[in-house]
From TrEMBL:
SUPFAM superfamilies: P-loop containing nucleoside triphosphate hydrolases (SSF52540). InterPro entries: AAA+_ATPase, ABC_AA/LPS_Transport, ABC_transporter-like_ATP-bd, P-loop_NTPase. Residues 12-252 form the ABC transporter domain. GO terms for biological process: D-alanine transmembrane transport; L-alanine transport; L-isoleucine import across plasma membrane; L-valine import across plasma membrane. The lineage of its organism: Bacteria, Pseudomonadati, Pseudomonadota, Alphaproteobacteria, Rhodobacterales. Keywords: ATP-binding, Nucleotide-binding, Transport. Pfam families: ABC_tran (PF00005). It comes from Roseivivax sediminis. One of its GO terms (molecular function) is L-phenylalanine transmembrane transporter activity. This is Amino acid/amide ABC transporter ATP-binding protein 1, HAAT family.
Length: 255
């Protein structure tokens, strides 16, 4: 896995990224690089700055300083929509699926949303979605049996699967998953790890995860944040073996 880091092109290059909220520096001069096809986890205790970092990469929040490059292109000033077109997708800690629609229609909206001129779900009769595409997406995230189920009738884990399917509707270049295992059962966590392992290898994945075991199983390389800083980086084995980092991650060190 590490070979991918050394030989492939750079998917994401973050340079001196900083975000202040008044006197608070939520992300403080973070510089990191992620190779194309890499699976990276961003770990850190509550308030470390992980979500703020994601918000800046996705364009949901402007940085106070610094630059973000996606495959060499400076995207720091791009709107979130333009970043989607450039290949960035993200999920949020809170589910954004449409509860009153079926799994199939949620996937259809995601497919249309990324390609169609506007959202035309109600025109489905004259504008049939590509069933093969929705079915393939559902299969990829383990929801084939739930295609006709309303999203609000899905379990929490299935809703996260649906979110992942929606994020994959048009294969992103960079996929940002914000705590994908939050609230999942042990069995659902195992299937999440398997789903992540099955993602196309050319997709670059960064995930924020509170479950250290999941993060360490699912990624090639780990960046640890603490109080807005990038504290350490290493392979899962290196991070697991570092007691100081483990203590900080588990919140045993003071802020
Ligand atoms: N919009 C905001 N306004 C003011 N402060 C904010 C805002 N967003 C985040 N913060 C603060 O910035 C710091 C970093 O928050 P952030 O949510 O990025 O951390 P995190 O590592 O994602 O934490 P968690 O694991 O709890 O989600 C925290 O102190 C938080 O209170």
């Amino acid at each position: 896995m590490q070979a991918a880091r050394q030989t492939t092109e750079e998917a994401l290059a973050i340079e001196g990224l900083t975000r202040r909220f008044g006197a608070l520096v939520a992300v403080d001069d973070v510089t990191l690089r992620v190779s194309a096809g890499e699976r990276r986890a961003v770990l850190g205790a509550n308030g470390a700055g992980k979500t703020t970092l994601f918000n800046m990469i996705a364009g949901d929040l402007p940085p106070s300083a610094g630059h973000i490059r996606l495959f060499g292109e400076d995207i720091t000033e791009l709107s979130p929509q333009k970043r989607v077109l450039a290949g960035v997708r993200r999920t949020y800690q809170k589910s954004l699926v449409f509860g009153g629609m079926t799994v199939r229609d949620n996937l259809y909206v995601a497919i249309r949303g990324a390609t169609g001129p506007r959202l035309t779900i109600w025109k489905r009769a004259e504008n049939q979605p590509d069933r093969a595409q929705t079915d393939a997406l559902a299969e990829r995230v383990g929801l084939t049996d739930r295609l006709d189920t309303m999203a609000n009738e899905l379990s929490h884990g299935e809703q996260r699967q649906l979110e992942l399917g929606m994020a994959l509707a048009h294969p992103p270049k960079l996929l940002l998953l914000d705590e994908p295992a939050a609230g999942l059962s042990t069995r659902e966590r195992e299937s999440l790890v398997a789903m992540l392992a099955d993602l196309p290898r050319d997709l670059t994945l960064i995930l924020i995860e509170h479950d250290l075991d999941i993060a360490l199983k699912a990624v090639d390389y780990v960046s640890v944040m603490h109080n807005g800083h990038l504290l350490a980086e290493g392979t899962p084995a290196e991070i697991s073996a570092n007691q100081d980092i483990q203590d900080i991650y588990m919140g045993r060190h003071g802020k």
